Amino acid sequence: MSTIQENDFILIVYQDRRYLKRLEPGKAFHGKGGILPFTSLIGLPFGVRLGEYDVYEPILEDLIMYGVKRETQIVYPKDAAMIGFKLNIRCGSRVIEVGAGSGALTLLFSRLAGPEGQVVSFEKEERHFRNAQKNLDRLGSLKNVSLHQDDVIGYEDEEFDAAFIDVREPWLHMEKVRSLLKAGGLLGTIVPTANQVSDCLRGLQVGFGDIEVMEIMLRYYKINAERLRPQDRMVAHTGYLAFARKIEEVVPPQV
Amino acid sequence: MSTIQENDFILIVYQDRRYLKRLEPGKAFHGKGGILPFTSLIGLPFGVRLGEYDVYEPILEDLIMYGVKRETQIVYPKDAAMIGFKLNIRCGSRVIEVGAGSGALTLLFSRLAGPEGQVVSFEKEERHFRNAQKNLDRLGSLKNVSLHQDDVIGYEDEEFDAAFIDVREPWLHMEKVRSLLKAGGLLGTIVPTANQVSDCLRGLQVGFGDIEVMEIMLRYYKINAERLRPQDRMVAHTGYLAFARKIEEVVPPQV
Amino acid sequence: MSTIQENDFILIVYQDRRYLKRLEPGKAFHGKGGILPFTSLIGLPFGVRLGEYDVYEPILEDLIMYGVKRETQIVYPKDAAMIGFKLNIRCGSRVIEVGAGSGALTLLFSRLAGPEGQVVSFEKEERHFRNAQKNLDRLGSLKNVSLHQDDVIGYEDEEFDAAFIDVREPWLHMEKVRSLLKAGGLLGTIVPTANQVSDCLRGLQVGFGDIEVMEIMLRYYKINAERLRPQDRMVAHTGYLAFARKIEEVVPPQV
Amino acid sequence: MSTIQENDFILIVYQDRRYLKRLEPGKAFHGKGGILPFTSLIGLPFGVRLGEYDVYEPILEDLIMYGVKRETQIVYPKDAAMIGFKLNIRCGSRVIEVGAGSGALTLLFSRLAGPEGQVVSFEKEERHFRNAQKNLDRLGSLKNVSLHQDDVIGYEDEEFDAAFIDVREPWLHMEKVRSLLKAGGLLGTIVPTANQVSDCLRGLQVGFGDIEVMEIMLRYYKINAERLRPQDRMVAHTGYLAFARKIEEVVPPQV
To answer: Is residue D135 a contact partner of residue D69, using CB atoms and an 8 Å limit?
Structure first.
């Protein structure tokens, strides 16, 4: 059984608030539930309740939501989960990402693809690139990721299983990204506005099939067995998700 | 570049309909877009358009949605994606499942956990057990899965990373499942009714923390750039998802 | 107490199906619950259960949903209710409607405005005009309605409290309709696509304020106390609703 | 054309904020858009833009949302609109209300029922009763309303068209309220939790038919034609609405 060690990331849950912290000895968590000295945690198993605090081993969702320092639009679990699923990312997947942003999805792809997988990510803007790199360095040694401060370039010999584009004008990158996908490879993108969805659909007309556009609404409930009801407020919108698959027209067979 | 071979599974997309087929030589797909002889596909890359048909390599979602023969309630992509994500399943995960049903989630867990992972699944009802086994056999050689026609038993020496319960009365299994989870291990369940959610919440009071209940609504859009609008109808409800983490009360440290 | 009489409209409810019928003596309702001879109902009060059938006095919603013969897109209760509310229609309201369609909203406006109110409605297409007129004639003597087969014309001396535009290109009519509204008068419209919403917003830039765009999702539940859950499927989209108020720029006061 | 007069209620809109004020001479509105002296408004038509402020004649929604001083749970437009619609309230309706709360729905019923209608409302708790009475007095001379600080009593000779119950345990009042409804009369209620819905459904088993339970989700959009998208956050839940109609079992006719 693994136990809590120095420098581990820990997730502290107090009521419905969550905090991701690195266990630096000598430091402590100060919250409404009192002071939680980190040294007292060392050697305990994960999943412990100390007074009003629960302390857990962070999962990928925790890292994305509470560990990534954001300079760009947050990616929500509802969308992250679907993106990983629709891009079919699993052990060994090779993924290309255009627009690393804060690196949250880069982290998702990296973890899902595992040590046998590969994630190539591009972030053109220097400030975002540096932040993403810092987030990736801090949250895990991700040897399967290569992050480039650049447009999508090179990698001509590679064939990627899936690609995700998360920039303002995804349609400008679709042709290039398509050329890096294997036959039948998967493409995804997320855009906040309906106008952008229309532009994406125009961009996908050439060379992509099985196009889907969707939005996901996630509603949490108050966890009271005798008074079960949804929470009062929710996220109304993050973005529209679009997915498609690379296709090649072939001369129809003699049917 | 991998090409379509005999006995491969293929996904045929015609307009917004999808069909999962095994490529048996000499056979053909008969649909509204005409006859598609399978032999004509052999040797082509995946991701090809032949007349009105698109032919793709099936992804996990396709197998779950179109390949699993169902005798039980279908699991939808919106829920499957979130279940995999919230249970943090990835290369090497060890997962326990109570209620294999038709095996759709078993397949999900197996694929996400990969060759280094392990999935132990229980299905008490003989008819469902046989159907699940058949689905798993047919859809992929999943050496990481062991399916038992039984209640949750044994495996006392194991520590699982995550567990999913998909039976009518999940609360009856929570204590046993908890004993098989590692410290801080993850639990998920899905139930169709609000009354069951209340019962699950009562069951989770002991030994679980960070409880979340949610429902996911997925709305697809018509893929028309000039007339962008949601589809007319949608799935209104599949089930309520509940997630929690195993927790142990400890004597509070001297704060 | 009023009782069921010859030629009354009646609403027959069988399980979750509803049927609006006119009580023609000698006729009968033939359904899965058996034959219900209309003569047997005469003299009974509304709100009676006969075998598996419930018979009610129709309300406005029943007339709109089950009584209006449709040649155009249906208006749903969720939208109709909000339209009446946001246009503030009540006893005495004067309402202008551009695009009567099948007359369902005309009926709504007429009923809500009551005998002291006034509804002026335009329907350019002859076929729709005739159908709307027939629906209005059949479903109630609505002396407060005048239906015109024309574009929006005349009525220069009038000042309407509210206007609703339900045509393909609402923005083409906004300026004219604005001229018929009283100062601060209310405008509403419904369009199915996001692209049309953008065009409406452009049209509303001039002369309208307090602009709101919304969509309403209505989810019904299965009425089972022990197994409470939403219905399986729902209407995902009918249209986007936009509302605004007529505004006049004035020279700012000396503040 | 009616113009703004002393003591009129006015709605001030600044960006997406709305304020309901009574025009007291000598006073002014102080907001982020500067100072708006009320005297400068007198004699202007409603629907005027002065600097960054729009000034409108309040509609019923404005009174309910911004004019009612609340001591109880707010009623939202999405629900208020549907309640008025499903209870079929219009000029001349006679309505009974159990649980006036802050009087917001009382005001709705009163306005929709008009001078020919009648609203009888009960509020047992003295503090709420006084607040409701004050709200009703302040927001309009509503001669068709009688508000009682009491349980539902008396009115034995009356027959009401519709009833709305808005208390913690609506099921306790259903039998009494039913006795005051006309044959086929309409009943509505709103409850925040799923558990209460189950109890309501049990209460409606006797003497009511055509039972419907629903929830309404309203999503507003940002009014930017070039960047059309929903607002970021929304109300996730207010309450579950239930509606039914009074029914009488009769000896089945000789079919």
So the answer is: yes
Amino acid at B118: Q
Could you tell me if A47 and A81 lie in one domain? no
| C13: in domain | yes
> CA B180, B182, B183, B188: dihedral to nearest 10 degrees?
-70
Let me know whether C51 and C70 are in one domain.
Answer: no
Interstrand relation of C240-246 and D9-14 (parallel, antiparallel or unpaired): unpaired
Query: Domain range holding B14?
Result: 9-58
3-state secondary structure C48-99: EEECCEEEECCCHHHHHHHHCCCCCCCCCHHHHHHHHHHCCCCCCCEEEEEC
| Contact present, D101 and D108 (Cβ < 8 Å) | no
**C168 in B contact zone (CB under 8 Å):** no
CATH number at residue C52: 3.10.330.20
- Determine contact, residues B209/A11, Cβ cutoff 8 Å: no
Could you tell me whether strands A181-191 and A145-148 are parallel, antiparallel, or unpaired per DSSP bridges?
Answer: unpaired
CATH code: domain of residue B158: 3.40.50.150
Indicate whether C35 and C147 sit together in one domain: no
pLDDT score at D118? 95
Determine how β-strand C240-246 pairs with β-strand D34-37: unpaired
68-127 in chain C: CB under 8 A from chain D: 77-78, 80-82, 84-86, 88, 90-92, 111-112, 114-116
Residue C220 CB-half CA count within 13 A: 15
Whether residues A81 and B77 touch (CB distance < 8 A) is answered with no
pLDDT digits (tens, 9 = 90+) for A104-149: 999 999 999 999 999 999 999 999 999 999 999 999 767 999 999 9
Q: What is the DSSP letter of B168?
A: S
Q: Angle at Cα C213 formed by Cα C211 and Cα C216, nearest 5°?
A: 145
Given a cut of 70, the residues of chain B with pLDDT beneath it are 1, 141, 156-157, 251-255
- Report CB contact under 8 Å: B1, A182: yes
The strand pairing partners of A189, in sequence order, are A165, A242
ipTM of this predicted complex?
0.95
Q: How many domains does chain B have?
A: 2
C147 three-state secondary structure:
strand
Sort out which chain A residues have CB atoms less than 8 A from C198's CB and list them: 194-195
Both tokens of residue B177?
């499942």
Q: Check residue C86 and give left, alpha or beta (phi > 0: left; psi -120 to 50: alpha).
A: alpha
Which helix H or strand E contains B5, and what residues bound it? none
Our CA-based measurement puts residue C126 at a distance from the nearest CA of chain D, in whole angstroms, of 30
Q: Please give the DSSP secondary-structure letter assigned to residue A238.
A: S
pLDDT of residue D154 exceeding 80, the answer is no
List the beta strands (DSSP E) in chain B.
Answer: 9-14, 17-22, 28-31, 34-37, 48-50, 53-56, 94-98, 118-122, 145-148, 160-165, 181-191, 208-222, 229-230, 233-235, 240-246, 248-249
Percent of chain D at pLDDT > 70 equals: 96
Strands B9-14 and B17-22: antiparallel
Do A26 and A103 share a structural domain?
Answer: no
Nearest by CB to residue B182, choosing from A1, A37, A228, is A1
Task: Give D194→chain B minimum CA distance, Å.
Answer: 7
Q: What is the rounded distance in angstroms from the CA atom of residue A84 to the CA atom of residue B111?
A: 13
**Residue spans of alpha helices (H) in A18-156:** 60-62, 77-86, 104-113, 126-139
Strands D9-14 vs C28-31: parallel, antiparallel or unpaired: unpaired
Q: How far is B232 from chain C (nearest CA, A)?
A: 5
Hey, how many other C-beta atoms are within 10 angstroms of the C-beta on D26? 7
Is the CB of A235 inside 8 Å of chain D's CB atoms?
yes
Q: Are A66 and A19 in contact (CB under 8 A)?
A: yes
Same domain, A49 and A68: no
What is the number of H-type helices and E-type strands within chain A?
Answer: 6, 16
